[in-house]
Design a protein that fits this description.
By secondary structure, the protein is an alpha/beta fold. It is 41% helix and 19% strand. A hairpin with a 2-residue loop joins strand 2 and strand 3 (18-21). The longest helix is centred in the last third of the chain and has 26 residues, at 332-357. The protein is globular and about 55 Å long. Bound molecules: nicotinamide-adenine-dinucleotide and (2S)-2-hydroxybutanedioic acid. Nicotinamide-adenine-dinucleotide (NAD) is lined by residues 52-53, 55-59, 79-81, 121-126, 135, 139, 142, 145-146, 162-164, 166, 191, 194, 222, 267-270, 273.
Length: 358
């Protein structure tokens, strides 16, 4: 007997010929459901989110966490491989969001149309011995193509860029949007939340505090010396010995490499990153929803320094970034770190800009 495999709609259609993957329009769904004596399920009011790279190491747990977010009514999962399986699996979770899967470039536009927030974890991860910049040659092109789709299909969406090297992929996204005439700097955010998550964890360990009660601003960018934890501005206020500062700064800057080496060729951080990305996406969604006082660190178009992009605390709201907060007072160690960070960042930004304009 023909019929819908799950109440959660659109992923698979069971026919007398077996399982047929279907990516139908909503109108088609409704008429099929009526014909088969089922009730049509409409999406509840809420926000529409797409994950691009949804079948990957980050993409899968991130999609799971977004399916659990009560602010999300529609969740689109896009990848060039395996989305039918990931979508079928996640769609069985009894949470509110309606899940739809999209496979391959021909379905990118349908994946993006109508989205409020697009999260991009698509691209290859590091192996031991590589820098994030070694990913540029492959990931730059992936991010460019995906952003061309965003410019065409959901130019007003908030975009969260996870793909590395973030210091270059965010400028790439900006250049693509500028070329398309859709660039809104308030809506493009590089995800550096994992640096803050790690900093809170490591500082919590040193101070003997619950990491959930610790808040460390991490500014600059997302690679090596560009990751600049401001240990003089930790909340709750505290002080560190020079040895603690040296240990914490190095551990926070090398947290990604610590995971890459421990995974020994099987990729980079995926689970802590999915957690961090879901936390950041939730902050963006709460901002869109109208919640007040939401502050997160993010790598954005900025005038905090002379560089065109820089990570610092930003206030999120209905229009995306409402305000970029100043760095605050830095001590001598942090000022020296800032100069090193700016030198590397400047090159990474230029590399991204040149890639799109060559
Ligand atoms: N910003 C951060 O803090 C942070 C943290 C961890 C990882 N990352 C980066 O995130 C990226 C993904 O990491 P991962 O571990 O999930 O990698 P992964 O290889 O497990 O997954 C990447 C996914 O992207 C998909 N993909 C490739 N090309 C695509 C395209 N054109 N369109 C859509 N999807 C495409 C792949 O099919 C795969 O499913 C890497 O670049 C990694 O360096 C960033
Ligand atoms: O280190 C990596 O390559 C992945 C990511 O940027 C991280 O910080 O874990």
């Amino acid at each position: 007997m023909d019929g819908e495999l799950s109440g959660a709609s659109e992923v698979w259609w069971v026919s007398s010929q077996g399982f047929i993957p279907m990516f139908r329009t909503q109108m088609e769904e409704v008429s099929i459901l009526r014909g088969s004596n089922c009730r049509a399920k409409g999406a509840a009011p809420g926000l529409k989110v797409a994950v691009l790279g949804a079948s990957g190491g980050i993409g899968q747990p991130l999609s799971l966490l977004m399916k659990m977010n009560p602010l999300v009514s529609v969740l689109h999962l896009y990848d060039v491989v395996n989305t039918p399986g990931v979508t079928a699996d996640i769609s069985h979770m009894n949470t509110g969001a309606v899940v739809r899967g999209f496979l391959g470039q021909p379905q990118l536009e349908n994946a993006l149309t109508g989205m409020d927030l697009v999260i991009i974890p698509a691209g290859i991860p590091r192996k031991p011995g590589m820098t994030r910049d070694d990913l540029f040659n492959i990931n730059a092109g992936i991010v460019r193509t995906l952003c061309e789709g965003i410019a065409k299909c959901c130019p007003n969406a908030i975009v969260n860029v996870i793909s590395n090297p973030v210091n270059s992929t965010v400028p790439i996204a900006a250049e693509v949007f500028k070329k398309a005439g859709t660039y809104n700097p308030k809506r493009l955010l590089g995800v550096t939340t994992l640096d803050v998550v790690r900093a809170n964890t490591f500082v919590g360990e040193v101070l003997g505090l619950d990491p959930r009660d610790v808040n460390v601003p991490v500014v600059g960018g997302h690679a090596g010396v560009t990751i600049l934890p401001l240990l003089s501005q930790v909340n709750p206020p505290c002080s560190f010995t020079p040895e603690e500062i040296s240990y914490l700064t190095s551990r926070i800057q090398n947290g990604g490499t610590e995971v890459v080496e421990a995974k020994a060729g099987a990729g980079s951080a995926t689970l802590s990153m999915a957690y961090a990305a879901a936390k950041f996406a939730d902050a963006c969604l709460r901002g869109l929803h109208g919640d007040a006082g939401i502050v997160e660190c993010s790598y954005v178009d900025s005038q905090v320094t002379e560089l065109p992009f820089f990570a610092s605390k930003v206030l999120l709201g209905r229009s995306g970034i409402e305000e970029i907060l100043p760095l605050g007072p830095l001590n001598e160690f942090e000022r020296a770190g800032l100069e090193k960070a700016k030198k590397e960042l400047s090159e990474s930004i230029q590399k991204g800009v040149s890639f799109v304009n060559k």
